[in-house]
């Protein structure tokens, strides 16, 4: 686990009472895993195919597990049908997100 920086990485932003994750999703991968930073986003490979919201659902489930949140505390704000997504998270701090998702 990496130490928490004094600044937030570009893939985490804070809007009002929510933490927003900037995610670059890669559906159809062999397994679901965090790859690292890519173009100012956190790149995550998703095992589910990009069909009928399956990849978005799998992404939210993966993030909920890693962040110890309920799935209804996460929401795709932007990018429902694209690889670049904004995921809002409630009831969590940016530092906790960084600790849970940094590789």
- What is the count of DSSP helices, taking H or I runs of 4+ residues? 2
Low-confidence stretches: none
CATH superfamily: YggU-like
| Backbone CA Rg | 13 Å
Q: Label the structural class.
A: alpha+beta
**How large a portion of the residues is in β-strands, by DSSP E?**
35-45%
Task: Enter the CATH topology name.
Answer: Conserved Hypothetical Protein Mth637, Chain: A
What proportion of the residues is helical, as a percent range? 10-25%
- Overall body shape: globular
* CATH-scheme architecture: 2-Layer Sandwich
Order of H and E elements: EEEEHEEH
Distance between the termini: 7 Å
What kind of assembly state do the chains in view correspond to? single chain
Report the top-level CATH class. Answer: Alpha Beta
Mean pLDDT: 92
Query: What's the β-strand tally?
Result: 6
Number of domains: 1
State the gist of this model.
Helices cover 21% and strands 36% of the residues.
């Amino acid at each position: 686990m990496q130490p928490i920086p004094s600044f937030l990485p570009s893939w985490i932003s804070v809007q009002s009472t929510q933490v927003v994750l900037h995610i670059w999703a890669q559906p159809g991968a062999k397994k679901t895993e965090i790859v690292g930073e890519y173009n100012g986003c956190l790149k995550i490979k998703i095992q589910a195919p990009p069909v009928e919201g399956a990849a978005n659902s799998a992404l939210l489930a993966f993030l909920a597990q890693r962040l110890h949140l309920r799935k209804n505390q996460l929401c795709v704000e932007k990018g429902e049908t694209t690889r670049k997504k904004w995921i809002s998270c409630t009831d969590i701090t940016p530092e906790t997100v960084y600790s849970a998702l940094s590789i």
